[in-house]
């Protein structure tokens, strides 16, 4: 649905994007995670061509945006919704007036506009709040207005620029739940940028980790978790690095061959083999892909090689520290 190839953006001598390739599939929620200055906002602004990349191409819904003239680009942008960290609402307009704004720009007749606005407000849980002014709303409600406005043009794609960064944790979760519902019910493809791993863990199907204008790692979260040594796994399950010599780090992947994290594979290995097992640390997370866990242990005894082979055969990722 979104394909960016070889994106480069330079501001004077600052290279904000240094050869970025991004592939967002239709119907997925894709997170771009990175610290301040990594280039996330620049990437998002290049995807809808609010910024023109210095080099590279951007295709959205099969249309090469980098090849379009300004009138065609404006039309194409109507199919790309965007929500912002600080909501970007017009304080002089009511809630309904904010949501109606893009419809007015598109020339939608008044009666049709009013019907659409009512539908959109209901969709985001703001039924009956149309006459309020933005200052009468909480941060979460303001973001709901932002989402309703972004959906007015029936976009194929929603871009989210740190949409939950200004919200408290409970409100963040309610907005993320709304985005997840819109993704499921409308088949909306969502590209979101964030500096919060929590956002990625809660809603994303795929992720790109960005640093210094480059993507360091990207892919479906379920696949990255199954990739030994992946940065995502290390960041979701922080354990002291480097791992102590002789220790073993086990990743429970949520693989269908190894259906639940709580399978008694660890107690089995102690029962079946002549080994002593001590737990050094670990945690379990409930991700959209299923429950995933990481456990660091020491495993000593005559049957250690056989026990490690058994754990591998059980579908766990087994990493031995030298
Ligand atoms: N309009 C601009 N003019 C000059 N430099 C810019 C401009 N926009 C971004 N940059 C620079 O490009 C780099 C990437 O910035 P960008 O805002 O994309 O990062 P970010 O990951 O979104 O960070 P943040 O979360 O703090 O916004 C930074 O070094 C920044 O100073």
TrEMBL record:
Keywords: Amino-acid transport, ATP-binding, Cell membrane, Membrane, Nucleotide-binding, Translocase, Transport. One of its GO terms (molecular function) is ATP hydrolysis activity. InterPro entries: AAA+_ATPase (IPR003593), ABC_transporter-like_ATP-bd (IPR003439), ABC_transporter-like_CS (IPR017871), ACT-like_dom_sf (IPR045865), MetN_ABC (IPR041701), MetN_ABC_transporter-like (IPR050086), NIL_domain (IPR018449), P-loop_NTPase (IPR027417). It comes from the Bacteria. GO terms for biological process: amino acid transport. Residues 2-237 form the ABC transporter domain. GO terms for cellular component: plasma membrane. It holds the Pfam family NIL. Homodimer. Forms a membrane-associated complex with FtsX. Belongs to the ABC transporter superfamily. Part of the ABC transporter FtsEX involved in cellular division. Has ATPase activity. This is ATP-binding cassette domain-containing protein. It comes from Nonomuraea terrae.
